[in-house]
C-alpha cells in the first residue's frame, strides 16, 4: 500500500489521536455543561453570514488561519488597534483582505447574553471556520477550551503569515515552522477553491513579473487575459477583487487542484505546487480524488485549530472580541 493510500486509510484514526493528545487541554463538547448552545449559536450566525455573502465561508477559514499562525489560536487577530498599539488587523496581510469579523461579533454578543464570560472568542473563531460545511463541504468536530490572548502586534504578522508570493520551498519552510508537513500544507492550500482575492495579491504576475517578462509565463494565457480584463494595469481601486476560482467553486470538489494543473493558480504560492515533484504528485491525486483531499483538509484544519492554544488560567475570556478586558 502506498504512503498516500495509508494516509487516506488512517485519516480518521489520525483525527482521533489528535483529539486524544490534547484532551487534557481541549475537549470536544467542552461547552456542553457550561453553555450548551455555544456551537449551535455560532453555526446559526455563520449560516446568516453566508446567506448575506457566500464569500464569508472562505473569509472565516482565512480568519482562523491568520489567527492561529500569529501567537497561536488566541483570537489576537480580532483585537482592534488603539492609539498606543497597531494590532494585527493593521497588517497589509489582513487589511482589507480579512472578512467575517461581523459574524464573530454577532455570535459573541448572543453568547454573552446567555452565558456571560464563558465562551472564548478563540473558540468562536475555531467553530466558525467550519463554515466550509455550510458552503457545501464536510464536518469535523472541534475540541474547545481555548482562552483569548491579551496581545496583538502588527509586526508579528510579517514573520508569521506566509505571503502569496512564496515558492514551494519557502512555503514548505513557513509551514514547517508551525509544525506542519508538506502534505498538510498542500491540503490546507486547497481552501483557495472558495473566496476571492484583492488585485494587489497577484498584480505582479500580470504586469511586472521580472526583468525578462512582464507576465508570469507559468500562467495560462487565456486566464491572464481574463484577469487583465478584471484588473486593468495601474488600477487604484482598493476594492477590486476576483474569485479564487472562476468555475462556480464548491468544497464538494477539488477544482482548486485541477486549476493548478491547468496553470490557472491565482497566486504564485498556488501555481508553485506544480513545480515540485512531491507536491505535484499530491496535486494530481487530490484533483482525481476529492474525498481524499477533504479528509486530509479536515485533519489539517483540526491540527491547526490546536496550534499554541491558551488554556486553563492563561489568557482571558474577552467580553468583547475586539477589546482586551480591563
UniProtKB/TrEMBL annotation:
> Which cofactors, if any, are listed as required?
Ca(2+); heme b
List of residues binding Ca(2+) 2: 253
GO BP field: hydrogen peroxide catabolic process; response to oxidative stress
Annotated active site: 66
Plant heme peroxidase family profile domain segment(s): 25-325
Return the CDD domains for the record: secretory_peroxidase
Kindly list the residues the record flags as site (Transition state stabilizer): 62
What keywords tag this UniProt record?
A: Calcium, Disulfide bond, Glycoprotein, Heme, Hydrogen peroxide, Iron, Metal-binding, Oxidoreductase, Peroxidase, Secreted, Signal
Enzyme Commission number, as recorded: 1.11.1.7
Q: Which family does it belong to?
A: Belongs to the peroxidase family. Classical plant (class III) peroxidase subfamily.
Q: What is this protein called?
A: Peroxidase
Amino acid at each position: 500500500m502506498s504512503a498516500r493510500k495509508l494516509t487516506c486509510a488512517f485519516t480518521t484514526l489520525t483525527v482521533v489521536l489528535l483529539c486524544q493528545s490534547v484532551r487534557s487541554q481541549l475537549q470536544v463538547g467542552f461547552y456542553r455543561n457550561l453553555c450548551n448552545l455555544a456551537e449551535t449559536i455560532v453555526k446559526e450566525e455563520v449560516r446568516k453570514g453566508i446567506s448575506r455573502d457566500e464569500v464569508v465561508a472562505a473569509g472565516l477559514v482565512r480568519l482562523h488561519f491568520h489567527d492561529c499562525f500569529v501567537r497561536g489560536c488566541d483570537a489576537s487577530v480580532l483585537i482592534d488597534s488603539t492609539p498606543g498599539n497597531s494590532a494585527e488587523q493593521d497588517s497589509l496581510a489582513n487589511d482589507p483582505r480579512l472578512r467575517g469579523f461581523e459574524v464573530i461579533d454577532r455570535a459573541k454578543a448572543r453568547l454573552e447574553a446567555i452565558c456571560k464570560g464563558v465562551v472564548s472568542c478563540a473558540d468562536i473563531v475555531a467553530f466558525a471556520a467550519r463554515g466550509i460545511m455550510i458552503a457545501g463541504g464536510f464536518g469535523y468536530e472541534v475540541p474547545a477550551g481555548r482562552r483569548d490572548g491579551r496581545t496583538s502586534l502588527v509586526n508579528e504578522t510579517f514573520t508569521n503569515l506566509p505571503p502569496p508570493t512564496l515558492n514551494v520551498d519557502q512555503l514548505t519552510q513557513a509551514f514547517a515552522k508551525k509544525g506542519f508537513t508538506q502534505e498538510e500544507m498542500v491540503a490546507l492550500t486547497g481552501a483557495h477553491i472558495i473566496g476571492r482575492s484583492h488585485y494587489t495579491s497577484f498584480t505582479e504576475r500580470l504586469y511586472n513579473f521580472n526583468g525578462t517578462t512582464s507576465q508570469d509565463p507559468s500562467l495560462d494565457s487565456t486566464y491572464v487575459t481574463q484577469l487583465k480584463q478584471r484588473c486593468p494595469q495601474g488600477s487604484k481601486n482598493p476594492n477590486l477583487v476576483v474569485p479564487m476560482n472562476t468555475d462556480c467553486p464548491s468544497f464538494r470538489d477539488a477544482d482548486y487542484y485541477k486549476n493548478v494543473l491547468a496553470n490557472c493558480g491565482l497566486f504564485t504560492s498556488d501555481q508553485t505546487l506544480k513545480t515540485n515533484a512531491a507536491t505535484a504528485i499530491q496535486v494530481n491525486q487530490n484533483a482525481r480524488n476529492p474525498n481524499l483531499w477533504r479528509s486530509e483538509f479536515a485533519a489539517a484544519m483540526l491540527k491547526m485549530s490546536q496550534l499554541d492554544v491558551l488554556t486553563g488560567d492563561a489568557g482571558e475570556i474577552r467580553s468583547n472580541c475586539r477589546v482586551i478586558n480591563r
